[in-house]
Amino acid sequence: MSFITSVFYFFTPYTDARERAVAVFFRGLTERSSQSKIRERLGHLLQRDIAAINLWTEYRYKGYRYLRKSQRKKLYANLQRIADDFDRFYESHIRSAEAVVNHIHRLAPHAAIDPEKARCLQALNDYFSPGRGMYEYRESSSFGRLLRDPTHEKLIGDCNQIVTLYMYLYARYHDLRDLQLRILPEHVALHYGGIDVETTTGTFASYDGKAGGALLPVEEIVSINLLDTTDSYLATHEVAPEDLLQASRLAFILSHDRDVVTHNLDAAYKRLINALMERNNYRRALEFAVASRDMTLLSVVGHNGAVYEMQQHNYAAARRFAQHAMDHDELIRSTWQAEGAHYYQTQHYHDAIKAFKQLNDQTLIRQCYEALFFEEQEKLGSDLTTDSIKRHASTVKRMHSYAKKSGNKELIKYTDSLKKYT
Predict the structure, then answer these.
(1) Could you tell me the CA-to-CA distances from 67 to 24, 159, 169, 331, 376 in Å, in that order?
(2) What is the dihedral angle through the alpha carbons of 248, 249, 251, 257, rounded to the nearest 10 degrees?
(3) Which helix (H) or strand (E) holds 135?
(4) Do the Cβ atoms of 155 and 166 come closer than 8 Å?
(5) Rounded CA gap, 285 and 220, in Å?
(6) What is the number of H-type helices and E-type strands within the chain?
(7) Residues near 58 by Cβ (< 8 Å), separated by ≥ 6?
(8) In degrees rounded to 5, what are phi and psi of residue 240?
(9) Residue 113: which of 31, 208, 230, 192 has the closest Cα?
């Protein structure tokens, strides 16, 4: 990395170009993004560095704040140590292709496999075999806990995480598109050409015909990891609603489990919109409510936003929100009522009249004209003379106009008596 590049990444949240590429990919995704295009782009990222995807998403979208930038740098260094250690192991513990293929065909006679790729998977099985004491399965672990220095510490992770590490190491030798994911109840394994790879035990297996044993593309590992929120860290650390929504959007695009991801996406929208409303950020809440296409959510934001803006005396904004509420007609009338009352109380009677005219409330309009009449009357003073009335002829004229508009006969009679002296 050049000096200029080093300086650039020093001032960014990313450790390097790999993380930046992942962040750019995630940014701007919505549930209506093209699934085929997203899968294609994600496939290239997975091949380039699946580990960066997993670490960045755990940090950014799952609330793992221990994965700060300095810690991720250490984990990437450990990942390189694991890769180097596996390379040395692979070179010195090569099984014959014939022996590997024969073993696989005993388990899955119809498996169509490439000997070199099968040998690579066998080497990964041997490397992570529990018998070597390098890896230990532990349910609900984060990826960061798997990336340790293999020469000093045991690697600990659940099935999702060890599958991810298998994929990272395999991608350094072959195309990840060779592989699929075998999805079993509460479990995930790899699949290649008719044979399953049980990464938690470092063995080959044949899960064909087992209930729930669906085969999915390797890109699905991203949504599986995003949806896996059982880690104890998550139980005590809140994920920002904005981050949770973006994670749910990507999972929605990628996952084949439509019921789960649809429910999660709906819940993420509600969580984010409620959080924004609690902060009185109704503008952003409305943007996400529109994006959710949930008419109930949209109505709630519209109603609450209108009420809030009315309280802030932002009546035009209140009407914009009210248009999205199911009770929009009644709510819009309320905004005009509140606007007229506010201007009346602050003695801005002309503005109050404009508001009350929207309601066609003649009683309130006449009250405003009466108030304008008395406001003009104060300009005459208390000691009226013929001369003083003449000096205030324009005031008397306005009083007479307001009196007529108010419909108050006594005020009209009074101004008529003054007009004869003007």
Answers:
(1) 19, 20, 22, 47, 70
(2) 90
(3) strand 135-137
(4) no
(5) 30
(6) 20, 7
(7) 64, 67, 142, 143, 144, 225
(8) -60, 135
(9) 192
Q: What is the pLDDT of residue 78?
A: 96
What's the pLDDT at 186?
Answer: 82
pLDDT value, residue 409: 93
Going by C-alpha positions, the residue among 46, 51, 54, 31 that lies closest to residue 251 is: 31
- On whether the CB atoms of residues 125 and 197 are closer than 8 A, the answer is yes
Cβ(110)–Cβ(198) under 8 Å? no
255: number of CA atoms within 13 Å, CB side?
24
Each residue of 353-389: pLDDT tens digit? 999 999 999 999 999 999 999 999 998 887 787 888 8
Give SS3 for 77.
helix
- Of 189, 126, 182, 184, residue with least CA distance to 163: 189
Element (H, E) at 417: helix 409-419
Predicted pLDDT at 251: 77
CB 63 within 8 A of CB 247: no
Q: For all residues of the chain together, what is the average pLDDT?
A: 89
- Provide the angle, in degrees to the nearest 10, between the axes of the packed helices 35-61 and 159-171: 120
Task: Please calculate the CA angle 91-18-257 and round it to the nearest 5 degrees.
Answer: 90
Residue from 79, 129, 256, 252 nearest 180 by CA: 256
Query: Roughly what angle, to the nearest 10 degrees, separates helices 241-254 and 258-278?
Result: 160
Q: Three-class SS of residue 19?
A: helix
Q: What separation in angstroms does the CA of 152 have from each of 79, 132, 159?
A: 13, 13, 22
Distance CA 361, CA 353 (A): 9
Q: Report the predicted TM-score, pTM, of the whole model to 2 decimal places.
A: 0.69
Nearest to 199 by CA among 212, 220, 184, 210: 184
Report d(CA 167, CA 49) in Å as an integer: 9
Q: What is the pLDDT of residues 25-68, one digit of tens each?
A: 888 778 888 888 888 899 999 999 999 999 998 888 877 878 89
